[in-house]
């Protein structure tokens, strides 16, 4: 049998919307590099958009967030049957649950598997009883599945890289790529809006994103007489254990100065209405919302936690505060509200940072270099692979500027 004209790559992802939101630039880069791209996912109304991109779509009966062993066994069987049918040259498992499911499905199969662990997820970051109970199980599964010879790991920040090495993962099998890429041609710097000072939040409506802390901070600002509006853009995520209840979200809509927008497809419309971006998250892989805000020329306030501090750099383009600290969040928001010159300086630096380090072109080049490396393909001038497992990047270092929260 003659060899296939193109190597086949399969993206295994739990939800169709997540692929479109977080992996589309990588998939485009893979196709442009000569890969035949397949997407295997649960369909939630976005399958047509995936097919419109020219990718091969495979529907899965996935119940994301379920810990039922029967559900796990069912999806592993589905994925294993798909892998046997497609005989992929490479699979890219997107996020923690697909990494576990896909790795179980690929047992005994010969192709390399890249397991993307963006932010590590609820099981590693939550302080709840449930999170702490499943953490040893997840750690054991990862050690068992991701230390195999054909397995590699993709993380988005140095903290997650260190977390993987602490689980005895081989450093030369851990690749670090910052995010999934921002389309800097589509997202351009925006002028500040007229009207009252406005802070914008974009993301899933989760407690782990710091939303309750943000709403509490807005209440404190209001009681202090600070005229600050708050935009909240995003949907609930019932599959996530920290998803905020619908009744609580509805109660926010009745508070003066808060606009709950729901899902917004064109995210530039949010940043056109906001003076700054705020993300008081407890942990991230590398937050797309802050990358997009920086591309649109917005200064930001974020928590000093893994992932956030990769794009929100104190004294350069952001003010950083501790997690779960509404008082510190109030002071940081008020500082930016009162000083348009700092906002303008941070906005320009953030845009430059995205162009230099986080554009979809750069990230696409880096991920294809990883794919080629895992398959032993010629890199075709897509950049060398560093000895540590991460693509070598030429970065211009920003000179830190002193600021009130640096």
In brief, what are we looking at here?
The protein is of the alpha/beta class and 406 residues long. The chain is 41% helix and 16% strand.
- Unreliable stretches: 381-406
Q: CATH topology of the largest domain, anyone?
A: Rossmann fold
Whole-number mean pLDDT? 88
Number of strands: 13
Structural class: alpha/beta
What would you call the shape?
globular
How would you characterize the largest beta sheet?
7 strands, parallel
| The CATH homologous superfamily of the largest domain | Glycogen Phosphorylase B
> Considering DSSP H and I runs of 4 or more, what fraction of the residues is helical?
40-55%
Describe the 3D structure.
This protein is α/β, with parallel strands linked by helices. It folds into 2 domains: 8-181 and 359-375, Rossmann fold (3-Layer(aba) Sandwich), CATH 3.40.50.2000; 197-356, Glycogen Phosphorylase B (Rossmann fold, 3-Layer(aba) Sandwich). The chain has helices spanning 16-22, 24-32, 47-52, 69-86, 96-105, 122-125, 129-146, 158-166, 211-223, 246-253, 268-273, 288-295, 308-311, 326-338, 340-358, 360-375, and strands spanning 8-15, 36-42, 56-59, 90-94, 113-116, 151-155, 174-176, 197-202, 228-233, 258-262, 276-279, 299-303, 318-321. Strand 6, helix 8 (158-166) and strand 7 form a beta-alpha-beta unit. Helix 12 crosses helix 15. The longest helix has 19 residues, at 340-358. It is globular, with a radius of gyration of 21 Å. The termini are far apart. 47% of the residues are buried.
């Amino acid at each position: 049998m003659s060899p296939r004209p193109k190597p086949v790559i399969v993206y295994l992802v739990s939800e169709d919307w997540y692929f479109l939101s977080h992996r589309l630039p990588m998939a485009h880069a893979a196709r442009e590099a000569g890969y035949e791209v397949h997407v295997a996912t649960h369909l939630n109304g976005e399958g047509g958009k995936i097919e419109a991109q020219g990718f091969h779509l495979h529907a899965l009966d996935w119940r994301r967030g379920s810990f039922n062993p029967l559900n796990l066994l069912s999806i592993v069987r589905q994925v294993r049957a798909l892998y046997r049918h497609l005989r992929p040259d490479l699979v890219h498992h997107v996020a923690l649950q697909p990494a576990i499911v896909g790795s179980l499905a690929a047992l005994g199969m010969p192709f390399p598997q890249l397991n993307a662990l963006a932010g590590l997820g609820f099981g590693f970051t939550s302080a709840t009883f449930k999170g702490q109970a499943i953490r040893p199980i997840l750690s054991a599964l990862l050690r068992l599945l991701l230390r195999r010879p054909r397995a590699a790991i993709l993380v988005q920040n140095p903290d997650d890289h260190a977390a993987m090495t602490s689980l005895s993962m081989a450093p030369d099998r851990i690749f670090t790529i910052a995010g999934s890429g921002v389309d800097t041609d589509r997202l351009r710097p925006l002028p500040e809006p007229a009207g009252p000072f406005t802070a914008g939040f974009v993301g899933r409506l989760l407690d782990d994103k710091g939303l309750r802390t943000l709403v509490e901070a807005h209440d404190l600002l209001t009681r202090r007489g600070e005229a600050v509006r708050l935009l909240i853009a995003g949907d609930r995520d019932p599959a996530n254990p920290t998803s905020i209840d619908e009744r609580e979200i509805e109660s926010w809509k009745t508070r003066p100065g808060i606009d709950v927008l729901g899902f917004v497809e064109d995210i530039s419309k949010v940043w056109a209405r906001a003076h700054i971006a705020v993300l008081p998250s407890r942990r991230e892989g590398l937050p797309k919302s802050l990358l997009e805000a920086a591309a649109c020329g917005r200064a930001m306030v974020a928590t000093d936690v893994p992932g956030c501090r990769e794009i929100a750099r104190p004294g350069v383009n952001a003010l950083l505060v501790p997690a779960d600290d509404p008082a510190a969040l109030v002071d940081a928001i008020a500082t930016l509200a009162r000083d348009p010159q700092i906002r303008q300086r941070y906005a320009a630096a953030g845009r430059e940072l995205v162009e230099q380090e986080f554009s979809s072109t750069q990230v696409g080049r880096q991920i294809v270099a990883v794919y080629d490396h895992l398959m032993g393909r010629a890199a075709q001038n897509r950049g060398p692979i560093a000895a540590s497992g991460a693509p070598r990047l030429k970065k211009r270092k920003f000179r830190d500027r002193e600021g009130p929260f640096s």
